[in-house]
Amino acid sequence: MIMIAVSALITLTLVLLFGVPYLDFMKKKMYGQYIREEVQKLHAGKNKTPTTGGVFIVVSIITGSLIALFMAQELTTRAIIVLMTLIFYMFTGFEDDIKKIKGKQNEGLSPRAKLALQIVVSMLPSFYLIFQHQAQLTFFGLNIELGYLYPLFAVFMIVGSSNALNLTDGLDGLAAGCSFFAFLACALICKIGGYNDIAIISIAASAASLGFLYFNKNPAKIFMGDTGSLALGGMLATVAIMGKFELWLIPIAIIFISETLSVMIQVTSFKLTGKRVFKMSPIHHHFELCDWKEKKIVYVFCAISAIGGIIAVWGFLVQTLSGGG
User: Fold this and answer.
1) Is the terminal CB of the chain with fewer CB neighbours within 10 Å at N or C?
2) pLDDT at residue 199, as a whole number
3) Residues 6+ apart with CB under 8 A from 223
4) First CA to last CA across the chain, in angstroms?
5) Torsion-angle region of residue 140: left (phi > 0), alpha (psi -120 to 50) or beta?
């Protein structure tokens, strides 16, 4: 438990320390986010706000995690794979962000190229668990053995989570705030389940998200960009997979899932009927057009994320105590 606290403290400190010079560098170089055309009226003042803040989020998570893992003598293969997934997803997002900056628009990597990179990276943790003979899902005593179908399930989870968090990153503090609660829940579940190595990494991600809020709260000084959102989203599902609480990710990531579903519903409805279900998707933009203030949306969504995390931790604890874990 001490090393978990050490991981959180080191990571939080590093985010706050790294953020200042990184922000200054981005301002000097004029590397800013270009807001997509559909939301220009809502977020006109945010155009060219510095982006790629995910770089110092990820660097802080890796540094804080490694220090605590070494001190706790918990640097396992499992932990290394989680951190490698985080790094590779960061590079995928960074390449996407750089293309947007250079092109001076909101279009980066092509959807196919981005998806291909995400799938390739997600295969690492997916096949690791196959080799470890951990290709089953457990929920209150129910064991579902997926066998060689598990990699497909895991890839779907990781890629889906990465894109879901990316969709959520549309308001100041929203993605970071929800990530704070999501990774905090993951850390507690991993600790309960005996995965101390993954708990150390999860709490580092939670602390990094909290620290990033200092720079990203409304009005945001910097965005995490795809660099941060793809990395944190991919890592979130990877943690759930490696910690063997896959199904409990549903309440933990309830906001990220809702954002994704809103886009899917909107696109499907428009293609089939020519009508839109929401005023705009992802759903946080719908509430903006319903005259909700940006801060209100962020507070409400973060509160829901916190409740989802509490439900997941409580449920997993009951499952473990009842012998179903």
Assistant:
1) N
2) 97
3) 33, 49, 50, 51, 52, 53, 169, 216
4) 21
5) left
Report, as an integer, the average pLDDT of 156-164.
Answer: 96
pLDDT value for 108: 62
pLDDT digit string, tens, across residues 18-61: 999 998 888 776 565 555 555 555 555 566 788 889 999 999 99
pLDDT at site 261: 96
What are the b/e assignments for 26-49, b being 16+ CB within 10 Å? beeeebbbbbeeebeebbeebeeb
User: What whole-number distance in Å separates Cα of residue 178 and Cα of residue 32?
Assistant: 23
Q: What mean pLDDT, rounded, does the chain reach?
A: 90
Name which of 33, 227, 254 is nearest 114 in CA terms: 227
Rounded to 5°, the CA angle 183-309-256 comes to: 70
CB neighbour list of residue 150: distance below 8 Å, 6 or more residues apart: 126, 129, 130, 135, 136
pLDDT in tens, 60-76: 999 999 999 999 999 99
Give pLDDT, residue 42. 58
Measured CA to CA, the distance from residue 147 to residue 23 in angstroms comes to: 46
